[in-house]
Amino acid sequence: MTITTEPGVPKSSPPGTESSALRKLLLRLHFYAGVFVGPFLLVAALTGFVYAFAPTLEKLVYGSYLEAPATDHPLPASEQLRAALDGRDPSAVLSLQTAEAGGSTRVVFDDPGVGSGETTVFVDPGSGKVLGALATDSGDLPLRAWLSALHKNLHLGEVGNLYSEMAASWLGVIVLAGLYLWWAKYRRDRANGRGRLLTVDRSLTGRRSTLNWHGVVGACAALGLIFLSITGLTWSDNAGKNVKTLRTEMSWTTPKLDTAIGAAPAAPAGEHTGHGAPAAPVADGAPVDPSAVDGVLAVARDHGLTGSLSATIPASAAKAWTVKEAATGGDSIAVDGATMQVTDELRFADWPLAAKLTSWGIAGHMGTLFGIANQLLLAALALALITLIVGGYRMWWQRRPRRSEGFALGTVPRRGALRRLPWPAIGGIAVVAVAVGIFVPLLGLSLLGFLIVDVLLGLRSRWQPA
Description:
By secondary structure, the chain is of the alpha+beta class.
């Protein structure tokens, strides 16, 4: 097998070639990243395509757990909770999420006997009938939890996490480089009266046709793919830590409720509020009465929380209950279960813009931001990425030498473009590459690997006889 490399450019170049040199530099980067990172991206796209439909698949697989007859007069939450207990230890209750129209109430229990550490019991809100129980993972049902782990690490743990971080690290770089290359080609072709940016030219054949499809699909999907790259990095092990640090330093972190009891109430809570002086502080470790859920939810409704509500039971009576709207971007409050006073509240409208964008971005990446349309959009982006990867490898195959002896792969874009740039531009590229490489470590290490391969190929071409 042979890999053919094109000869390098002369060391001295005529003036006015900086834009051409930048294009060729990005072409070589786009090529190497596409060839070596392509398999990681392909796996991420295939698993992401399936994960995109997780919310819909859950309804199909777990319909008997999730669906219940709609009712205008649901049983009190405390009665539903008692039905869910069914002999379980009341102290094991972690949270209760009220039912949506036509849905079931979810009661989550601490359960060391299952791998995820929790079990969710589903209750018909109208009759109190227990519909079943499932081992869940941070609220995710088994199917979604399994698909999530498949997409994130292929069920290979820490080793598998490297695959998804590599894919997320390079996806945005590959897309941005490809977008520049396609725009540069469009400008050159437009000068000849045949430039097309977002439409396919069906008159082309061979490699030119493949390139045309590759460019159009990439340009149309670019914004969505960059979104997936950025949001995907927030879950990564290495770059994710740096993202978290940056958000902390810039005060972009998601605000948190203060659940400590003892301060004056944040605001009166109507008829459900306790009167008089605040109760004396409760000793940490005192038990919590789960039946207080009715009053806590009533206080939340009085404070304007709507829709399905998730009430989290504190670990001890020295802490307040947390009630949050289940929908993305929901408001939340902290309620003292003993006095029914609101100790803190947090409105989504008051979140910093960066925290709002993070919340929306994560929900959008998971396909839960705007229903089935969100899932279809994610599936379309996954298919577009698969098309780009397959098309990229096909173009490389179409570049192979036709008369080479033995099995030969396509040629590599020309070397030496970096030397044609002015020194300030080279310095700027180096600074940006180092900074990005430090912030996104797998990107930096793999880029260093590409440079080593590039140098070795250059030395190999010099040693080959003419």
